[in-house]
Amino acid sequence: MAQRAQMSTLTDGSNPVAFSPDGRTLASGSGDTILWDVDVASWRRKLCAVAGRELSEKEWATYLAGRPYQPTCS
Q1: I need a labelling partner for 6 at 20 to 30 A (CA). Which of 19, 23, 36, 49 fits?
Q2: According to the model, what pLDDT value does residue 6 have?
Q3: pLDDT in tens, the chain (74 residues)
Q4: Which of 64, 3, 10 lies closest to 36, judged by CA?
């Protein structure tokens, strides 16, 4: 089950933001446009490449308590 959490808040309201139609990219800016990759699958691939391994069952229990263990990178 996907869960969403607030990560940041844009407070001044001066920079417009918009999601791509597929919801995988967020565009922001008022002069130069910045494109943010917000695709969960893309981030998972990047994190698995950096870590080079699955989360252990102990790590899973620590960071995702209450959710059944499942492979994260395969």
Answers
A1: 49
A2: 64
A3: 455 666 666 666 667 888 999 999 999 887 788 899 999 889 889 989 998 999 899 999 998 899 999 988 87
A4: 10
Question: How is the chain split into domains, by residue range?
Answer: 17-63
Query: Which residues does residue 37 pair with via DSSP β-bridges, in sequence order?
Result: 25
Task: Kindly list the distances between the CA atom of residue 8 and the CA atoms of 11, 34, 37, 57, 67, in Å, as whole numbers in the listed order.
Answer: 9, 15, 14, 29, 25
Q: d(Cα 20, Cα 23) in Å, to the nearest integer?
A: 5
How far is CA 32 from each of CA 18, 20, 61, 62, rounded to the nearest angstrom? 14, 17, 42, 40
